[in-house]
Amino acid sequence: MLDKSLLAVVFDLDETLLMANTASSAESRMKSLQNARAKLLEDMRDKEGSDRARLQANAEAFAREEELVAADLELVRSFAAYDRVQYGGREYRAK
Fold it and tell me: Which segments does the entry list as coiled coil (predicted)?
């Protein structure tokens, strides 16, 4: 599915987007999310009321996305190192 530096995108029947990431693209996404969240937290210092609550909710969403990207990155690194991954209590090996 990953050939050279190409990114494969697959649509299934219910139009869910599946993406394949390289380790470097996941790391870049992680840095981008961290920078965006840091900017939101900085902006929160000057805000009050509903603006502050909105920024807090956005910062929490970025933090959750960071967790998901970190988990994806760990799967990519595990597969690269051992030709297998553990997910949902099951081990998946390369064929």
Answer: 23-50
Instruction: Encode the chain in three state secondary structure.
Output: CCCCCCCCEEECCCCCEEECCCHHHHHHHHHHHHHHHHHHHHHHCCCCHHHHHHHHHHHHHHHHHHHHHHHHHHHHHHHHHHCEEEECCEEEECC
Nearest to 20 by CA among 35, 36, 30, 5: 5
Structure tokens at 10: 């697959």
pTM of the model: 0.71
Rounded Cα–Cα distance for residues 11 and 7 (Å): 13
The pLDDT tens digits of the residues spanning 14-54 come to 656 667 778 899 999 999 999 999 999 998 888 888 888 89
